[in-house]
């Protein structure tokens, strides 16, 4: 089910009928194939999808870094194609981790530079910058060149620089990558604060399902260039909550009975010598009764039946039907990654900021 999350007002981001192909003829690849969604102001939205699902292309199209073949993008009701300067004025993005800050500049200089990009006088934002430095534990490094900092600290500078000016919409790709647990938790509460108290809209791509599950209000799942789901995290978890069951049988259960049972239930049984555990999905009550009948017919003794709460990772794998399990990197959800040479759009206000590459 694709749900429109807008509540009637102008959405922070509106994407309508976005399409983008790369290459020609037999080599053409359709990266984004008619993507449409609204993102409500002040919400944190996780964008997920297997590798090649079209996440990067969608985000780059929203930011004006890739020119779509068709479709429109509006930020706060302003068409980014018609009025790019106005549309991108309060948009920030971290697309390549710590690479979007200037490593030869000091931490403070980076904050001032990025504040200046938005047309603000950095002196007017001194208080904001001091509080950002404090929040991210960077105060004592204010005059240190970014180059001399650890990877995690560089990531924090990158985040602080994005927030150095007044932003209404922020795109973040893997913002917790390289952060220690404490900093990652700090970041999560900072994202909550930005969305709740400052009404900032945040679009987050992360490999870390835990971050997505705890920080995001809703999730947008892309697969094969299309939106396959756009719903709240709670609804998505609810969707599968009552479908998974774990049945425990008294051991021993004869081998042939186990195999028959596996075939009937469509799941693997594990026998630890004391008990036999079977986890299966029953989409309705009839299926559940059928499983119970199978257990009775097999003469197995039922010890326990429990429903199993799925986590977001499982929901994601089912919706995208990658089905290879969370350990398979090729199917795991990922954040956006840079694709060399795809910046075929003209410079925009957003381009200027997000592609301000480090001087390594
Ligand atoms: N510049 C390009 N030239 C050719 N093909 C491209 C280009 N950019 C993206 N693609 C192709 O478009 C499809 C979608 O890519 P995209 O990078 O948007 O997916 P993604 O969901 O961000 O994947 P990942 O998680 O691997 O970063 C892929 O098949 C990719 O190979």
UniProtKB/TrEMBL annotation:
GO terms for molecular function: ATP binding; ATP hydrolysis activity. Residues 318-360 are annotated as: Disordered. Belongs to the ABC transporter superfamily. Residues 13-249 form the ABC transporter domain. It comes from Haladaptatus paucihalophilus DX253. InterPro entries: AAA+_ATPase, ABC_transporter-like_ATP-bd, ABC_transporter_ATP-binding, P-loop_NTPase. SMART domains: AAA. This is ABC transporter related protein. SUPFAM superfamilies: P-loop containing nucleoside triphosphate hydrolases. Keywords: ATP-binding, Nucleotide-binding, Transport. It comes from the Archaea. Pfam families: ABC_tran. The keyword Cell membrane does not apply. The keyword Transport applies.
